[in-house]
Queue: 3 jobs
Job 1
Amino acid sequence: TTTTVTSSTTTTTTTVTSSTTTTTTTVTSSTTTTTTTVTSSTTTTTTTVTSST
């Protein structure tokens, strides 16, 4: 009497690829610096009156 037992081993390989989405948000804040230079020009007028007698 010959008893043959064939044990069938099933190997199941499950590959899970997790896709990671990296979102990079770059916010550039533009700062505008306005420099106003006011040059006040002062004009000095000197009037010399020579009275000749």
Job 2
Amino acid sequence: MQSVNRLLVDSVHLEFDKLQVLQSAFITAQTGRVTGVLGRNGCGKSCLFKCIMGGIKPQNIFVRFNDEPETDYAHIGKRVKYLPQNVFMPANITLGEAFDLYGVDYDGLVEFDNKFHTYQRMTSGQLSGGEVRIAEMYMVLNSEAEFCILDEPFSNVAPKYVEMMQQLIQQHKATKGIIISDHMYEQVMDITDDLFLLRDGYTFPINCREDLIHHGYILGRDQRKRANDTGTGLPSFVPGVQSGDMLSTLIASASSFSCAPLSTFHLLQDNVTIPLNQYVFIVML
């Protein structure tokens, strides 16, 4: 029987110039389960992951594997593999070489998606953003690490590949503990066994959709109706989020357009409320 490995990260405190980003934040993962982390842009999800991996040094953090404390980031890096939001494959090596360095069989990627059989000698710069994302996620999930952190894995990926990636995550959770964060919250909820929301620097366990409504991450039915009636719930385009069907917003500075400060707006995208603090010029499509 497969042994169960557990990862616990808690008491994470991070601040920059007295700006508190994380306050006693925590996250857990274990073999056989997928842990989801939701939160608005800028809430600190990526910072939390980087604190775990040593990319950012927090004021405080405790990392434990199976209740044993670990402070050596080299050891943590062997047991946890991280898919960051940005491309991590070196630009000067081919896809095949990257797989060799990572210790993952490239033929498996070809079996996952046959189109990659012609990409082995290409660099990441010669592929689309979605293709790089798929290849990197495949590498991370097929590594020998006990745990994987996937930060925005569905970014720039076509819907059919999102489904394939969801299936791949489900397959690998049998032998790994997987942590995933993505703004496509429905797709995250579909595959997670445990779900957390990061808000105001704290981590909140989420047991049902109503919890997300309670914390203001998504709107309830009455709130959506009220937003539609008042015109404040407008689909929008923001970087990293798919545009709405009716409206598109162009982010611009106040000097370029005569427009209202976005502090007065709360736009709705895929039922997620997005507070905006720049300036917006709204164009009817």
Job 3
Amino acid sequence: MKKLASVFILTVCFLAACGLGDTQTGSSPEEDEINEEVNNEEENNEEVNGEGVFDELEYKVETNQTDSELTVEMTLTNTSTESAMLSFSSGQKYEITLTNAAGEEVYRYSADKMFTMAIIQEVIPGGEELILSETVQLDEFEPGEYELTATIIVYTINDTEITQSPFEETVTIQIGS
């Protein structure tokens, strides 16, 4: 019984000590505010919304269509001599949408899929390319003109956060006759 009580008391003390891990000692409120401002400035400098970090990555979308299928090929070419490391915040590396002539979205690649929640990294060596491909079944679509938008969903490039993907292209396709 004494052993059980000792184990219980030690467990409670351990858990109580774990709860104190974030306490800072020896810092004043002014120092905390200054440190927070510096951290926020560093984070803002790392965020990119379309300029600089990916100047040497070229994005191209090509489609190939048969009567029943549309193949969408997204190519990201690294024109630099240095490797580029892309990080994706989930297993979803791209999004494809089809919009009809009335402006209604009639297809979304991710609509009926589940993706892993894990950081996934792809390295594109200098002078090489990353090719992502998806096949869309066309038998559910009415004949007509559609806008296809293909986006590579990148979270970071070379550890620099991307707030808006620069790798998006829209092409017009004709389904049926």
